[in-house]
Amino acid sequence: MSVTIKSQREIEIMRRAGEILAITHDEIAKAIKPGVSTKQIERVAEEVIRSYKCTPSFKGLYDFPGAICISVNEEVVHGIPSKKRILKEGDIVSIDAGVCYKGYHSDAARTHGVGQISDEANRLIEVTKQSFFEGMKFAKEGNHLFDISRAIQQYVESNGFSVVRDLVGHGIGTEVHEDPQIPNFAEKAKGIKLKAGMTLAVEPMVNIGAYDVEWLEDEWTVVTKDHSLSAHYENTILITEDGYEILSCTK
């Protein structure tokens, strides 16, 4: 395993990539409403990304056909934008997007309610987001990677939900997916020791029901096996000497 330590120059580029990605997510959020297709949302995202002279990190990655991933309700990740998929009141929609700026990537995901959603769906979204920040309590030089993983799992399960096991977070930089893999659940090992300059994409994927998932016939879309709702929250972070910095956010 080779985990890259980013230079100050690289960090500045990734910080800008993250700012542009955060702006993109803000614009996507405005577009999410009943009656809108997931293809229309993709179009908004791609226009924003390209307006900053960036490219969508996911377009063509491993032959993925979309500019961003849009996953609805029981879809966990990697939903392909479609003119036929129309959002309706009460849905929840997970947006996973990436930006490539000057050869460096940023990756972040958010889950939104469409119109009025159920209390349970709202709690799922909030617990998923908070589980990321519970993990961040251990994101510091000298701690171990799986300290983050354990904290995410403990928080999610203490709230009665489950953490997806078949999909994990990752390192990020000149490639969207770099070492190390970052599970959202505890491992027997401690994982690598965190060092300042590491850039990581930490991304809890949380289900209301069981953690089991399966792939649809399109070979991309991952869904919960029991068809329960799923939510996703992700940020690109930088490990620092005294903690962490979220790169995928606006100032």
Task: Explain what the structure shows.
It is a single chain. The chain has helices spanning 8-31, 38-51, 119-136, 145-158, and strands spanning 55-56, 69-72, 75-77, 92-101, 104-113, 162-163, 169-171, 178-182, 199-202, 205-207, 213-215, 222-224, 230-232, 235-240, 243-246. By secondary structure, it is α+β, with helices and mostly antiparallel strands. It has one domain: Creatinase/methionine aminopeptidase superfamily (Creatine Amidinohydrolase, Alpha-Beta Complex). The strands form 4 sheets. The chain has a 5-stranded antiparallel beta sheet. Strands 1, 2, 4 and 5 form a 4-stranded antiparallel beta sheet that branches. Strands 3-12-11 form a 3-stranded antiparallel beta sheet, with no helix packed on it. Strand 4 and strand 5 (104-113) form a beta hairpin. Helix 1 (8-31) packs antiparallel against helix 2 and helix 3 (119-136) runs antiparallel to helix 4. The longest helix is centred in the N-terminal third of the chain and has 24 residues, at 8-31. The model has no long low-confidence stretch (mean pLDDT 97).
